[in-house]
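Reopening this ticket.

The earlier resolution said the output was attached, but the attachment link was broken on my side. Pasting everything inline this time so it's all in one place.
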Amino acid sequence: MKKIVVLEPGYEHYHEEEAILAAFYPEFVVVPANASQETKREQLRDADAVMLREARLDSSLIAALDKCQVIVRYGVGVDNVDLVAAKAKGIYVANVPDYGSEDVAEHALALLLAATRRITSRDHQVHHGQWNIGQAEPMFRMSGKVLGIVGFGRIARCLAAKARGIGFRSLLVCDPLLDAQAAEDSGVVRVSLETLCREADFISLHVPLSEKTRHLIGAEQLALMKPSSVLVNTSRGGLIDETALFHALQNRQLFAAGLDVFEQEPIRADHPLLTLSNVICTDHTAWFTEESVIELQRKAAQEVLRVFEGNKPLNWVNR
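Inline output:
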């Protein structure tokens, strides 16, 4: 029997994982997010595998792992796992980078459209008896404008494919890993972040969070953007300096923002961004559809299975 500890439960059941790992008679132990550190350490001590979503697995918890072979993150980003500590103990860390790309891209596009067309503020106004408000605040056409995409991985490529139907004049991409041939094949133009911020009418962020990308969009970058521009983030909240973003939006240096992620989650109720009518916020839900949950649970379990069978994870992130 193999013991799998699931930190911070987020799913109704684990039938997908149980079916895939059936040959190892898995015992799934779900540890609540609000459990004490000592409770977590006690459960982790004899775990053969750890699976987690947003819970932090720091060096002190990893030190308690005496039997663990693999840690699998349900999702793409692994900034909540101490990769160095896991590597030092010889524990594989894997993620699931190839799930939900279509879902996140659709959510990014939905935020872009909703923020540009003032959908939430108009909905609120109509619900409260207002009418003939068409020209009460500016709106801008998307067709014929420029879309800027920061990062060009799976999700960003899905977004680019969907966005072409809107009729953007051009798609600008800032990604140091994108070579000239790949850009030409994808029908995008490689530019620097400075050029993208200055020339794009709409900007969507699709890069992982690291020390290099933290506050990638700060006061300097926001100052380059057009007053009519819209900024969307479905990646990681730490990519944006939220204080600088608040001031830019409040002072109308920026038209609107659509945010699915925040520097601290859940976002606190008195956060300044929540006071602005030109910000649309969702609860880190871009990844979610009924289909994506099944896909994510299945692919995460398959990584555990590979290691239990004596193989390396397909998406091994702490090599």
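Reporter confirms the inline version is readable. Residues 101-281 form a domain with the Rossmann fold fold (CATH 3.40.50.720). The longest strand covers residues 3-7.
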